[in-house]
Amino acid sequence: EVQLVESGGGLVKPGGSLRLSCAASGFSVTTYRMNWVRQAPGQGLEWVSSMSGSRASIYYADSVKGRFTISRDGAKNSLFLQMNSLRAEDTAVYYCARDIVMNYRNPSPFDFWGQGTLVTVSS
Amino acid sequence: SSVLTQPPSVSVAPGKTANFSCGGNNIGSRSVHWYQQKAGQAPVLVIYYDRDRPSGIPERISGSGSGETATLTISRVEAGDEADYYCQVWDSTRGHWVFGGGTKLTVL
Questions:
Q1: N or C: which end of chain A has fewer CB within 10 A?
Q2: Digit-coded pLDDT (tens) for A34-74
Q3: B45, A111: Cβ pair inside 8 Å?
């Protein structure tokens, strides 16, 4: 059974850093593109970043480029999001999600999502 | 850049049909994917590549497209269909996923 479990959220001051983790089970993160999507309170979905299983292609939303870094650890079968220089507008529930197509060179939609972890940026 | 436009809300009586539109530049040349998000839950993929349904999604949920508008249709609407519905496309020029603003379905 495919499962994604996020952790690492919490309260952080503006300018601070946080590292989110997403533990995957039921498949290998080295064979699927993985993604981070966030949702500010009461707002819609916003894609944040994606990384192919091979790590050959990585993409970031303009709003986080240069501040956030996506990575993965095949041995731990986990995805990570290092978030630096956090701002109030980064406050959101962060979801990790898996592409539906395995080992596909192009991004595909997301068939499995975690339950999310809340990040609050406030002084 | 891609901007996907969705109406903020749709209301429909039980048993009727709900249509959700998603419009944007060049949407006719892109594959559109749709997600359902119920209150307090993670999104669920309900339609991908315009009209394909993942396993477990009922046949009364369907997708279509014409010109610059993609449409998600839910037939025989049930109370359990109340949720927010988001469309999504891949902008290959910018290397970005784009989500529409979402449409809230209210079942009367």
A1: N
A2: 999 999 999 999 999 999 988 889 999 999 999 999 999 99
A3: yes
